[in-house]
Amino acid sequence: MEFVKRWALHKIFIGVIVGWSSTVYADLVVIVDQSSTFEHVASDDVKRIFLGKKKTLKGLPVIPIDQREGSRHRDIFYETVVKMSDAQIKSYWSRLIFTGKGQAPQAVANDGEVKAMIKDNPNMIGYVDESEVDNQFRIVYRVDR
Amino acid sequence: MFILASTASHASEWDKLRIDGFANLNAAQKLNREELSDNTAINSPEKFDQDVNFIVLSTLGIQLSASLTEKSRLVSQLVGKGDEEHFDIAADWVYYQHEMSPQWSFKFGRMRTPFFLLSEYLDVTYAVPWADMPDEVYDILEPFANYEAADLTYRYELSESTITLQTQYGRLIGDTWDIQETVSFNAQWSDEYWTLRAGIARGSAVILEDNALLSNPAVINANIYEKHHVIENKGYEAMFYSLATHFDDGQWLGIAEWTRLTVEGITVDQDAYYVTLGRRWGNWTPHLTYGDAKSQDDKIRRRNNIARRIDVDLYRWAIGVRWDFESGTALKAQYEEFINQKPSDDERVRTVIVGINAVF
User: Fold this and answer.
1) Which residue in A94, A99, A100 is closest to B359 by CB distance?
2) For B121, which of A55, A83, A98 is closest by C-beta distance?
3) With 60 as the cut, is the pLDDT of residue B204 above it?
4) Domains of chain A (ranges plus CATH)?
5) What is the pLDDT of residues A76-99, one digit of tens each?
C-alpha cells in the first residue's frame, strides 16, 4: 500500500514537472512556408539571418520575421541560437540602424502573427513553438537547448 | 513618441514608417583648475567646468525611416545637442537610400561621414562602452560629422563572415575649413567576433575666414602671409587614414583605432590612437582606455618660425564602467585624465562623466 502511495506521488510529481516544463520551455522551431525552396538551414545561418548578416539563402533573398520584446519565445531564441544578451543585441542593432546600414527584423506579437506573415511568402523565415506548425509550413531548423 | 512608434510599426506589413531614437543624458565635471592649451584640438574637457554640468554632453536623436518601396527609403535624423548654455535641434541627416540588390546599396543626401570606425554613429553612445567618444581621435572629426555626399556600399557574404566596401564623394563644410571634392573609401571584414577595418579619404581643404590659424598669434608673428605665403585661399590636400579593429566575444571586449590626418602646409598633421579593453560580468562592463595624439610635422613649423604652441603631444587614460540596468538603457561612469606635454610643461586635466545612454 505504502509502495502504491509512493508510486502515485512519484507519478504526480513527474507529471507536475513535465507539465510545468512544457509550459515554461517551448520546443522552438524555425519555419518557412511550404512553397519556399529553403529546406535545412544551419544554426549559424539562422543566427546570421536574424542578425542581418546573411541576406540570401541559395541565392534567394531571405527575410527574417522576429517576435517582439517581452515574448518568451524571443528570449529563448536569442539566448540559445543567437547567444547574445538583450544589451548586446540592442548595441548591435543601434550600430546598424543609426548608420543606415541595416534594420532590425520586423517583429510581430506572437506565433500566430509569425505564421500569418510567412504564409505564402516563400522568402520569409520565423520561429514558433513546434505545436503551432501545421502542414502549410516546413521546419528548417530545430532549436537545441 | 513611443505611442507613435508603436502605431507606426502596426501601420503596414512593410513597416512603412520606422521611428528609432537615442538619448545621452550626462553630468560632467572637471576635477581640477588646469586647462588644456588650444593646440590639443581636444574639446570635451574644455566644455566642462568645475561645477557639475548636466547638459554639456547631452544629446537626443530621433531617426525617421520611411519606406517608399521595398527597396528604397528616405531617412532623416533629428539631433538635439546641449552646449554650455543651450540645447539646439538640427536635422543631421536627410538622405535617400536605394538597395539595388542584397549586395549593393546607394545613398544620396546629407549623411554621416564614414572616415573612422565609429564616425557613422558618433552620437549613439549606447552602442559603445564609453560615456564619451575617444577625444584624441574623434574631436578632430566633430566639425565634419555630417556632409552632403553620394555613397555606394557593397556587401559580400563569405561562408562565416562579411566584407563591406564603401565609397563616398562629397563636400565637408566645417566652421573653419571647407574640404571640397572629398573622396573616401573603406573596407571592413567582420565575422562573429572580430571586425577589421581600413579607411582612407582625400579632399581639397580651403581655410575659412574664422580659422584659428589666421588669427593665431604664432602665425601672425611669423608673418606668414607676406614672408612665406603658406596660407593662401587655395585648396590644400587633406588626407584621412584609419585602421581599426573591434573584438567582442560576449565576455571580452576590445577596440583599437589608429588615425592619421594630414593637411598640406603648416596645418598640424596628427596621428592619434586609442586602445580599449573591457570585460562583461553579467550586466556590468568595466573598461580601461589609453589614447594618444601627436603632431607629425613639427619641423615644418620650425622652418617657418612658427612657435611650438601649435604642436600636439597629448595622451589620455580613462577607466569606466557600463551597467546595462534595463532593456535599451545603460548607466555609465567614466574617469579620465588628459596629459598635454606641449607647448610646455605637463598640463593635467581630470574629468568625470556620469550618464545614461538609451536607444528606443
Assistant:
1) A94
2) A98
3) yes
4) 26-142 (3.40.190.10)
5) 999 899 988 888 888 899 988 888
Alpha carbons B132 and B119: distance in angstroms, whole number:
13
Range from A45-49, A118-122, B175-179, B353-357 carrying the lowest mean pLDDT: B175-179
Residues of A with CB under 8 A from a CB of B: 44, 53-56, 61, 69, 83-88, 90-91, 94-95, 97-101, 103, 106-107, 117
Question: Which residues of chain B lie closer than 8 angstroms to A121, CB-CB?
Answer: none
Measured distance CA(A47)–CA(A53) in Å, rounded: 9
Interval A50-71: pLDDT, tens: 998 888 888 888 999 999 988 8
Query: What Å distances lie between residue A54 and B227, B294, B325, CA to CA?
Result: 60, 41, 31
Which of B106, B110, B160, B165 should be substituted to probe chain A, the one whose Cβ sees the most A Cβ atoms within 10 Å?
A: B160
The CA distances from residue B240 to A48, B137, B195, B311, in Å, are 32, 11, 20, 18
Q: What ipTM score was computed for the predicted complex, to two decimals?
A: 0.76
Q: Domains of chain B (ranges plus CATH)?
A: 2-359 (2.40.160.10)
